[in-house]
Structures are given as C-alpha cells and as structure tokens.
Design a protein that fits this description.
Blueprint: H1 2-8, E1 10-11, H2 26-35, E2 38-40, E3 51-53, E4 57-58, H3 61-75, E5 88-94, E6 97-102, E7 107-111, E8 114-116, H4 123-128, E9 135-147, E10 159-162, E11 167-174, E12 180-189, H5 197-204, H6 210-218, H7 226-233, E13 236-245, E14 255-256, E15 259-261, H8 264-267, H9 276-294, H10 299-324, H11 338-345, H12 355-367, H13 369-381
Parallel strand pairs: 8-15
Antiparallel strand pairs: 1-4, 2-3, 5-6, 6-7, 9-12, 9-13, 10-11, 11-12, 14-15
Bound molecules: flavin-adenine dinucleotide.
Length: 383
C-alpha cells in the first residue's frame, strides 16, 4: 500500500491541538507527537529488535476504501464472486451446509464458510449465535460535510475542539477527483439529557432532524464559535446516532459449525483510540490464516484458535479506548491504570504484537533473509 498512500495520502509530521479559544495545548501535542508512528518492539521475524518508524500517512477513508476495493477486484481475477448491496435476511441449514437468503430474493446454497462481518448490529449474530444487543454507552454523534475548504485551523489534519458541551472534530480532505471537502463531527455526551434510553435513542436516531439537532447543539454556546460557523456552512447533514458497544466476553463461542463472526459483530468499541477498524481488519486476516492452516474440514478448531488468539488483544484495546474516553461519557471508574491493563492482557501496543505484521516479516524472512532486513528498512524508515 505504501506507493498508493504516498500518492493519495498526506504525510503528517506535526500536530497542533488548541482549546476553544485557539490556545495551544502543548502537553497533548507532545503526547501525540511521541506516540505516533513509533513502534518499538522485538520484531522476531527479523530478529533485530529494532525500533520501527512508520511514516505517518493520513488518507481519506473513502479513498482508502476505493484502493482496497480495487485490490479486491484484482484478486477475484475476473470471476463473478462479489455481490454488492445484498442484505442478508435469513439463514437456513441442511446438515452443516448453510443457505443464505437475501432481501432481494437471491439465494446462495451450500455455503462452505459464513463470516459475519456485518457490524455492530450483526444479523448473522442474531440469526445464528445469540440475542445479545449492542449497548448504548453514553455518547452521541452528528456529522456533516461542506463542499470545498472552509476556514479550518490546521489544513490536512484533524482539528479537535473541546468545549463545555461537546467536542467538534473537523478535517478538510482531498477527494479522488482532487476536489476538497470539509468534514465535521460533533460528539456529545448523554449526561444531563432527560428521558429514558428509548427516548434518547429515538432522539438521536431521528435522521431527518440532523440539521435541527446540529443547530440546537451549537446554539448552546455563546458567541460566534467555530462549531457554529461549520454548521452554518453545511450543505449536507449526514448522520446522527449514538455510540454502541459490544463486550466480546458476552459471546461465548465466536464460531459455530461453519459460521464465524469478526469485527464489531463481536467487539464493537467506541472510537476514542481509533482502533475498531484495524481490529476488524486484523480479525479477517488472522481468521484467513487459521482457516488455511486447519482446512475447511476442521473449521471449529480454526475458530477456537481464532478466539483464543484474539481475545487478549481485543480486551486490551477495549480498555485503552475506555481510558481515552472524554470526560462525561463513561463513569470514571471504568478507567484503569495502564500498568494493570498491560499486566492482564500483555502490552499490545508494539506493532510486533500484531499477527499480520509478524506474518509479513516471517514471509519476507522465508524468501530472502538478507533482502528482508533491507527492504523492511526501506519501506518503513527511509520515507
Ligand atoms: C462515529 C464513529 C467513528 C469511528 N471512528 C473510527 C476511527 O477513527 N478509527 C477506527 O479504527 N475505527 C473507528 N470507528 C469504528 C469502526 O468504524 C468499526 O470498528 C469498524 O468499521 C468495524 O468494522 P466491521 O467490518 O466489523 O463492521 P462495519 O464497518 O460496520 O461493516 C459492516 C458491514 O455489514 C453490512 N451489513 C449489515 N447488516 C447486513 C446484512 N443483514 N446483510 C448484508 N450486509 C450487512 C453493513 O452495511 C456494513 O457495510 C468509528 C465508529 C464510529 C461509529
């Protein structure tokens, strides 16, 4: 991916964090600076124990999805095996083989392996696993977009403004066709909001009212605030909803027969550590490796190994996310000292703890031990 990231991404070396009056928050800037892009650890594949520095490229989510989609299409080698826009409705089983029924009437019979990568409200989980429901965890979000570039504090970066009532995140990014879009999100805690859970849910999920919700929120602030300016210029109010979580320990078995879940369907977490998407992608990768290793006739063993391998890493990042949660969203006692978290789940921060990274290094080593060391250096440090 590195050449594509260089072509379509932004190299981000410095970070500016300010309060709602524009005063720099130097301590926060320093933390981001020190933690970004540095992955120290024993990369056992190379045996060097070196510190790896990853170039901190940022890439627009839509552009990244398009790049991944292009690769996926390439990998199918022209076969008609991708069916976009299908909504799973029912699953029926005959012996171990499953039949998938989609809302558009299409049916796929004799499925060898069913992977429920269908997110926090997983239908596959509801149909084949348990009736656990994702829980609302105290924060809500609204977002919208503005065509072109508005007055933005720092270009090509996330701008985060924490104010008394909510946090506003904004960013201006380049689209595939080189046009610019400004994107913003307002995150707002439940605290103090009247009404029961159902009312709160209905309020936040009333998509038609996103514009009204956004205006009502920013008008809580006095004066001509930055958030007000963003909302006033917005042409497209995209979404209003609330954050949901799934505790991975509520799912007893992550795979049953020839069906398995990955990603948010098992372990949806809040976005405060920015790792949900990576964990979902890692799940997919690790599962693929294990299915290859055990074979289709031993899927339950592959699923058991999958659950065993992934649990600590996921619980670690779930807790890290809780520790990162802005004030007012989760009870303070859900935060835990990082030393305790490391003691319980191991230190998952070094890139070497990521199975996909390890696999890549092992493969390179197997091909050419000497070249592997050199190319790794070239890919990751000299850019
Ligand atoms: C506001 C917000 C901000 C976030 N920010 C970040 C971030 O900065 N960094 C980060 O790493 N993570 C972030 N996350 C978390 C991240 O988006 C998720 O962890 C990640 O997308 C999970 O991937 P997934 O593949 O498991 O599920 P999803 O990405 O939710 O994908 C599930 C897919 O299944 C499809 N689907 C659902 N039901 C059916 C059905 N019945 N039939 C067929 N298809 C179906 C859906 O349409 C969807 O395409 C954020 C989440 C939220 C809500």
């Amino acid at each position: 991916m590195t050449p594509e990231l260089q072509q379509y991404g932004y190299l981000t070396l410095a970070h500016k964090v300010v309060d709602n009056r524009g005063n720099p928050l130097l301590a926060v800037e320093e933390i981001i600076q020190n933690s970004q892009g540095m992955y120290a650890g024993i990369a056992s594949g190379s045996g060097s124990g070196a510190t790896h520095k990853i170039p901190p490229y940022w890439v627009n989510r839509g552009v990244f999805m398009k790049l991944l989609q292009d690769r996926l299409l390439l990998a199918t080698q022209g076969k008609d095996i991708i069916h976009w826009g299908h909504q799973l409705d029912r699953v029926t089983s005959e012996q171990t083989k499953k039949t998938l029924h989609f809302k558009n009437g299409q049916i796929f019979e004799n499925v060898d392996l069913l992977v429920g990568a269908d997110g926090i409200r997983s239908k596959v989980r509801a149909l084949l696993f348990d009736d656990h429901k994702a829980a609302h965890v105290g924060a809500n979000i609204i977002y919208g977009t503005i065509p072109g570039q508005t007055k933005i504090i720092t270009e090509n970066k996330f701008n985060i403004i924490c104010s008394q009532y909510f946090t506003t995140v904004s960013c201006c990014y380049k689209n595939f066709d080189e046009t610019l879009t400004t994107w913003w999100a307002i995150v707002y805690p439940d605290e103090g909001k009247p009404g029961n859970q159902e009312e709160v849910r209905a309020f936040w999920e009333s998509q038609a009212n996103v514009r009204a919700l956004a205006h009502a929120l920013v008008n809580k602030e006095d004066g001509d605030t930055y958030s007000k300016q963003l909302v006033d210029q917005t042409t497209e109010f995209k979404y209003a909803g609330f954050f949901l979580e799934r505790d991975p320990l509520t799912l007893q078995r992550w795979g049953i027969d020839n069906a398995v879940l990955i990603g948010d369907a098992i372990h949806g977490i809040q976005p405060w550590a920015g790792v949900g998407a990576s964990l979902a992608a890692e799940d997919g990768y690790v599962l693929a490796v294990l299915v290859k290793q055990y074979g289709f006739d031993q899927l339950p063993l592959a699923f058991e190994a999958f659950q065993r391998d992934r649990t600590n890493r996921i619980l670690y990042f779930r807790q890290l996310t809780r520790n990162n949660t802005p004030q007012g969203i989760l009870p303070a006692d859900l935060r835990r000292p990082i030393e305790d978290v490391v003691r319980e789940y191991g230190d998952q921060r070094p890139l070497a703890a990521c199975p996909a990274w390890q696999e890549m290094l092992d493969k390179r080593m197997a091909k050419d031990p000497q070249a592997s060391e050199q190319s790794e250096e070239k890919d990751l440090t000299n850019q």
